[in-house]
Amino acid sequence: SGHVQLLPPQNVTLLSKDFAMILTWAPGEGYPPDVTYTVRYESQDRLDKWMKVPHCKNIPRSFCNLTCALSSFYVKVRARVKAVWGRSQSPWVKSQFKDYYSDVELAPPVLTLDVRENSIQVSASFPLPTCVENLTWKYDLNLWEAGSEDKKKYEGYFRKDTVTINTTALRGNYCFSARALYESISLKHSEFSQPVCVLLNHKG
């Protein structure tokens, strides 16, 4: 291919979603279908040092998950992307700065219920990238009888904790819902998960 000047990628955005930091963009005008993209990032403590992201070099898709490439979760970073086609390249386009620690957006946890004879054990799992497993994620759990507004709250459990609830006094249909918590500059939390309901001590 001759040296066609590729227009820059559009709508380059660094977003934080579901515990991950992701760079997204849209193809520029008139891109050939087999164009690829390369992404780099820089952190605010080392400006003008653009770090390579090995898993986002010459990729066909228009997003790059940067979470586990970042050298620190506490420093603001920004990313840039360029399009490549044959020997033609577009100019780099930069995103805005963000930092994982204060900008991370949380997804609701997934609840697992283990119903025993006189108790129920509830655990919450989070869709976390492996590199952020060690940060102190927590969750809040709500329990209520279906149809009632009266919720019993269990607050501030660490992510790997199981909540054990004595069910000897509970009769009927009970629902559980949880949200993820993260203590950064302010306390952040996800939406509550979709309720999961179980029949307890049902004689039938």
TrEMBL record:
Residues 8-103 form the Fibronectin type-III domain. GO terms for molecular function: cytokine receptor activity. It comes from Sylvietta virens (Green crombec). This is INLR1 protein. PROSITE patterns: FN3. PANTHER family: INTERFERON LAMBDA RECEPTOR 1 (PTHR20859:SF55), INTERFERON/INTERLEUKIN RECEPTOR (PTHR20859). InterPro entries: FN3_dom, FN3_sf, Ig-like_fold, Interferon/interleukin_rcp_dom, Type-II_Cytokine-TF_Rcpt. One of its GO terms (cellular component) is plasma membrane.
